[in-house]
Structures are given as C-alpha cells and as structure tokens.
Amino acid sequence: MFPILEKRCLAEGIWLMKIHAPRVAQAALPGQFVIVRADERSERIPLTIADFDAAEGSVVIVTQALGVSTRKICALKAGEALTDLAGPLGHPSEFVQLPPEELRKRHYLFIGGGVGTAPVYPQVKWLHEHGVGADVIIGAKNREMLIYTDEMRAVAENLYIATDDGSEGFKGLVTQLLEKLIAEGRHYDECVAIGPMIMMKFVALTTQKYGLKTTVSLNALMVDGTGMCGACRVTVDGHTRFTCVEGPEFDGHQVDFDEAMRRQEMYRTQEQRAAAIAAEREAGHQCKIGLDK
Ligand code: NAD
Ligand code: FES
Hints:
single chain, binds FE2/S2 (inorganic) cluster, binds nicotinamide-adenine-dinucleotide, alpha/beta
C-alpha cells in the first residue's frame, strides 16, 4: 500500500497527491511516469510524475477526475492509501543524459496545457537545479483552471501565461503565444510540450514551421505498462512504438497525432460504458449493460 501524505485541490476536479513511495522517489527522473490503482478492482492509470523527493521518499501525482478510475483516485483522502503505485516507468527526458557543458548552452521552451502543466514542473525544476534556464508557457481555459503557476515561477527563467478567455495573461491559445514570442525574437533550441493531444499536435505543427525541435509526452491508454499488451501503441515516423517502454516522450514532428486521438476516442467510449455501469451499481440496480455483473 502507498499512503497519501497530502492531498490538495489545484483547480476544479484536479487533485494533487503526495504519496509515500521511497523506492520510486529514489529512482525517479524527470519525464518518467507511474501506474497507479486506487484499489484492487480499479483499472491501472498511468500518470506522469509531477514531482519527487528522494530524501522525503515521496512522489507527487496530479489527477483530473474524469472517468470512473480517476474519480476513485481523487476520492481518496490524506491518510488513506493507493493499492498500487508502480514505477518509475518509461525513459527519462533526453536532456538528463546530456553533458552539463552542452546542456548549459541550450535554451528550452516548455509548454504545459491544462493538467499537462504538472508533469512539466519536474523537468523545469531539474534544469533549474542544474543551472539551465528555461522559459515556460502555461495555458488553461481560464484563470480558475491555471495550475502550478507559483511553483513554476520559482524555477523558470521567464513564465508566460495564456488563457483561452483572457482572464489572466495573454488571451489565446498557447500556440498563438508561442508565435508571438518567436516574432519578438526569442530563440529556443528545443520545445517540450505536455498537455492535451490536440495542443501537442498544434504546437508541433507550429514549431515545424520554424525548424524548432519539439518533444511531446504522450499519455496513451496503458494496460500492463511492460510492452506486452500493445494498448499504448502510437505511430512515430511510420513505425509502431509502445509509449510505456519506448516513451512517453517522442519527437513531436514524427508523431501521428490524428491516429493517437482516434485511439483516445475509442477508449473514451469504453470509459463512458464503465461510468454507466458504476452509476447503475451506485443506484442499486443490477447491471444491465454488460462487461460484468
Ligand atoms: P485544456 O483543454 O484546458 O487545454 C489546455 C490548453 O491547451 C489551452 O488553454 C490551449 O492553450 C491549449 N490548446 C487546447 N487546444 C488547442 C489547439 N487546438 N491548438 C492549440 N492549443 C490548444 O486542457 P485540459 O482540459 O486540462 O486537458 C486535459 C487533457 O490533458 C486530458 O486529455 C489529459 O489526458 C491530457 N494530459 C496529458 C498529459 C501528458 O502527459 N501528455 C498529462 C496530463 C494531462
Ligand atoms: Fe501494454 Fe504499453 S501498456 S504495451
């Protein structure tokens, strides 16, 4: 069992949980993810690590209550525990392998969209701790849905905020703000984008115009997380890749986002079915929808 040390609401339906997981915390690096289960009957949910502290033995996850299983995770209270937290999984971000002198010459731009802002944080923090400045754009629907702004301000060289409705910062999409920064003469060696698939697709299309290398972190549907089931497959540069063991980060200019989004939609239908079954159970009806009794 993995006790929840702290639980905090970041925005409507978005919860931060600090989990006691010393072995994961000691081995974790930026870019990696964990697979969690709220209880033995829950589905396995992959979550990119939002922070880790080896000394404290803790790992931070940020979950948006969307489907049945994520709602179960978010319903747990501080003092209760997750049944499973497996990790760290996947490859760390490429920059952690770069020699320090090369790394210090590079200027990174990170783009976090909505809940995807949380996993941007450990990457920018790691670079900051290694003497590398990075600019960050955080995008959200409105001021209320912005997360991680204070934490990011403490580690970013420059923090830019974009809201769809203009209630804070730049009014518009992160891609419009990206175009503005480039038009103003800002130079970047690499862009890292984490957020909704549609955002990552359009960030990659935008940066392609400028020949700006772009890395994206794919939150594909996962089942085993070991490269055996194929659930997390995506097409990158025309080849099938497994997000769990070969990702989660890939070259954004090579990812087939349209296919990845179609697969997410397929999954959403299954989630809706599971939600309907859970609602029937809660209402005390015998399940008529199928799947299980
Ligand atoms: P959202 O819909 O509020 O979008 C966040 C920002 O992305 C917007 O403010 C906008 O600036 C930008 N954006 C959205 N659509 C765009 C478009 N067409 N072109 C350019 N920019 C666009 O975000 P949300 O509701 O928090 O998104 C949740 C999604 O993020 C979920 O689908 C979740 O699966 C995903 N997510 C991904 C990761 C990851 O590791 N990749 C991590 C957490 C969450
Ligand atoms: Fe099964 Fe990746 S989750 S292969």
